[in-house]
Known about the structure:
transmembrane helix, transmembrane, mainly alpha, transport, 21 helices, membrane, cell membrane
Amino acid sequence: MPLLITIFGIFLLILLIAWVKADTFLSFLLVSVMVGWWSGMGTDAIVHAVEIGIGNTLGSLVIILGLGAMLGRLVADSGAARQITDQLISWFGLRNIRWGLALAGLIIGIPMFYTAGFVVVVPFIFAIAHRVRLPLLYIAIPMLSALSVAHGFLPPHPSPTAIAVELHANIGKTLLYGIVIAVPVIALAGPVFATRLKKYNPVIEAHMFTSPAVPADKLPGVATSFIIALMPLILLTLYTIGAMLFPASGFLMQVLHFIGNADIAMFISVIIAIVGLGLKRGLSMKSITRDLQDAFQQVSVVMFVIAGAGAFMQVLHDGGLNDYLSAIFIQWHIHPLLMGWLVAAVIRICIGSATVAGLTTVGILMPFLQQSHVPPELMVLSIGAGSLMFSHVNDGGFWLFKEYFHLTMKQTFLTWSVMETIVSVGGLLGVWILHLLHI
Length: 439
């Protein structure tokens, strides 16, 4: 019965989100209540589990997700993203332009959430394709594959951050391992795959070739743009490397431990961005604050999704369902890295949301993962890779790509869906290689 209850609960969740088109947060709440009731939990126990699940999940994520959204808004609105893109194109040249765009997508994608990053970089893609007279998707795929990888693999993005918190993984190590895997995966799914897409060159209206209207004299400097966009990575990397070189009791290590905390690193990054990308450009604190508030409001929808997943995870735990499932999975003798990827991939294909797929997988597999000896950072990346598998019609990103680039359904499957599949499978291979190297 516990297995049937869990399967039916997941099926009901898929039905509500993918077919009924119900709100994801409300769907999670309804499924959590139903699963708790079928598991024999009383009303008070179900309510308590939902409250604890939401509180524990969001309690450690609100700061980093909110600050991440603010940093992304400042990088986008200030023109820093434009500076990064233009500079990388000038460095790589026309012949290797797709490699420069892939690197630009990764740098911009680290601080920016996927949808916001997509909307910001698409005008650059259109303008570049028009200027250099190259096929549009040949230019677009390298940059968008990098955004997708950052979304699924790298903190401070919602899904990998939430999964890392649930599995007690080190955020800094997760980010570093994620970048090690991200570079070859982006190369394969972006520039290499893009060479097969020259035949796809949809016609775009002229007005789409314009970039965000930031006057040239108001743009931040190139060095400032790079440093601020990468500041969370810089601070987390300093702490991770310092932990390997300096004694834990020393003053320097205490300072690095403070600035290397994920929440503090994001806070410092936002403060530096406010000064470097806002006040120094002549913006008033009032206008900056208004933009930051708007950014936080936009990420609140993602927070509710994560909160709903937290409630569902807690009900599975309190109802004893995931302990039962863990015993079954152990008997299957499937490696935890493969199991995490596989479950996340199946849920992703069924539901569409990478965030929902990743967090639901953690809820189902938690006891099984806790009994494994695999580094939790690699588990985060394995589940993240699975959560990106084969984006199709139930994923908002699929339609965003299709409509912006004026593609047919068949063309979108042959470009976007294949690219996402390469990212997912390549991510799993990268995680497996790190595991074999005893990382």
